[in-house]
Amino acid sequence: MYEYKKVKLNIIKGDITEIDIEAIVNAANNTLLGGGGVDGAIHKKGGPIILEQCKKIGGCPTGEARITTAGNMPSKYVIHTVGPIYKDGSKGEDKLLYNAYYNSLKLAKEYNIKSIAFPSISTGVYGYPKNEAKEIAIKAIIDFIDKEGGIREVLFVLFNEDDYLLYKKSLDEKFRNN
Fold first, then answer.
1. Helix, strand, coil percentages in the chain from 3-state DSSP, rounded to 5
2. DSSP 86
3. In this structure, are residues 104 and 84 in contact, taking their beta carbons and an 8 Å threshold?
4. Second label for 100, Cα 20 to 30 Å away, from 14, 84, 118, 142?
5. CA torsion angle for 161, 115, 130, 89 (degrees, to 10)?
6. Contact 160/124 with Cβ under 8 angstroms?
7. How many angstroms separate the CA atoms of 93 and 68, rounded?
8. How many domains does the chain have?
9. Which of 15, 39, 94, 162 is catalytic?
10. CB-based contacts of 153: which residues, under 8 Å, 6+ apart?
11. What does the buried/exposed string (b/e) look like for 85-102 if buried means 16 or more CB atoms within 10 Å of the residue's CB?
């Protein structure tokens, strides 16, 4: 575990649908109607209530976030955010990915959510290079803590060992003195 300005930062290898935390973040697509990867797993485990609420929301632009209940999962909420599809890095993908993390945290703050779990957004079928995506994710979270506050715990939930080790190395380097 790491700490930054009294906010707990942690990383685990696991399944985000099993995490008992106030809110989990879904790496969704623009329709919010489910898909593959973490998005499909969240819709499947959470049950039809999530899809019903997503249909009422009517989609989400890239870089923004929307919220639903978590249905059958242990968490209370799902914050659906849409990361960018990576093309070549020159189409503003970095800003859109940063916004996906930052806006998820802003929405959590609006709902008085104090603990949130993130997957690695846009690094699956959307093709974002994992090392770059990880740095953007960490920067967005640190910036949010610096500017907004209101969050007590941020958890990264990585599905495989390679992703876990990538994030762990980066967090160890940034917070080794804490």
1. 40, 20, 40
2. P
3. no
4. 14
5. 170
6. no
7. 25
8. 1
9. 39
10. 7, 8, 9, 10, 21, 114, 115, 116
11. ebeeeeeebbebbbbbbb
Q: Is the dihedral of CA 111, 63, 162, 33 positive or negative?
A: positive
How does pLDDT run across 52-79, given as a tens digit for each residue?
Answer: 999 999 999 999 999 999 999 999 999 9
Q: Model confidence over 4-45: pLDDT tens digits?
A: 999 999 999 999 999 999 999 999 999 999 888 899 999 999
At 177 the pLDDT is 55
- Cα dist. 27→6, 37, 82, 149 in Å? 27, 9, 6, 23
User: CB under 8 Å to 11, separation ≥6 — which residues?
Assistant: 155, 156, 157, 158, 164, 167, 168, 171
Which of 125-142 are b and which e, b meaning 16 or more Cβ less than 10 Å from the residue's Cβ?
ebebebebbbebbbebbb
CATH number, domain with residue 54? 3.40.220.10
Question: Which spans in 111-160 are helix H?
Answer: 130-147
Catalytic residue list contains 88:
no
Query: How far apart, in whole angstroms, are the C-alpha atoms of residue 38 and residue 26?
Result: 7
